[in-house]
Design goal:
Beta Polymerase, domain 2; 53% helix; binds adenosine-5'-triphosphate; binds magnesium ion
Length: 373
Amino acid sequence: MQAYLVGGAVRDSLLGLEVKDRDWVVVGATPREMLSKGFKQVGSDFPVFLHPGTREEYALARTERKQGRGYHGFTVYSAPDVTLEQDLKRRDLTINAMARTEGGELVDPFNGRRDIDDRKLRHVSEAFAEDPLRILRTARFAARFHPLGFTVCDQTMALMKGMVASGEVDHLVPERVWQEFQRALHEKAPEAFFEVLRDCGALAVLIPEITSSAVFTRAMAALRCVHNRADTDTEERFAALLSSLDEPVALARAKALKAPNDCQNLARLVTAFTPQLRNSDPHNPEADALLNLLDQADFWRRPERFSQLLNVLECTLSADFPPLNLLRTASKAATGVEPKALLAQGYKGKELGDAIRHERLERIRDAIAHTKD
Ligand code: ATP
Ligand code: MG
């Protein structure tokens, strides 16, 4: 049996990038032989093993043939007669379909090295069309390697367009789509992910509401702005993406994508606050209205989410948008009201609630009066 380093590790070392995890392909072995050498089998679908010492993944060489639609329906064939080249051929992109022998020699039957040099994302074979997830992966690699100058080559873009036109993308399960979205939102150039999806037509299936040129431009600007801030999380990035939609539209899309609840909620708040802040008159701020917004955001119980909300709105409405500054001022002013202190004064039940509200209103009124000076 022979083991070869494959996939991302080979690609990233040629790109001069740090190699995170190393995957291996084993040719000419049976599961029984692997077990007898001390490897532990993981995963029941494919014959994949963990090395007893390094814990790195060793997969038996395999071929995959598509049977049904969507992500499911692959028939896996693995046996000692499957060659390295056959295994490499089932992979998505040429830059991901290279191998290295244990002696360090590059095995590159699909010219991945040339595409690395030319900065091209290119499909390995027509079998690419059997799995629509590859469209999302290709878009994600475009986002990751955009700063290095990589683009999707014309032939691959044409193939992806054909896949979209034949309805392949409609069969992707939301969980897999979300997984790719989530990763893409954290790549170096997340806009490139959405540009590739738009260009091949997949965006019109996955988030049709942002495909028009004006909305797309705004969504990308918001995403870029949020991305440029230090330490922004998935919720903020996702909310930025949907920020220029109306609240019910954004929420329905977030649900259809099966985005996690925190992502749905932030997208809902951002899109609900945007028109309210745009329509408010910063010259005549009303303490009542500001307090209502803080209630609406459940600022009292979710202060971290409120700061996420401000982060996104600073990008979509601009950082020095006066109504946003007033909201921030109001939140700081109202935050110090301690129910405990009022309890100690003898308030309880509805009276306590009223007293808290009254106190918060007073503080907000005071604070915004000072901003006018
Ligand atoms: P990363 O740095 O994100 O881990 P990677 O290239 O290692 O990048 P993985 O998702 O870990 O990507 O997959 C390992 C390899 O398996 C890829 O390089 C590719 O050759 C192949 N692969 C993974 N998913 C698919 C797919 N859906 N279709 C075809 N080949 C795939
Ligand atoms: Mg990997």
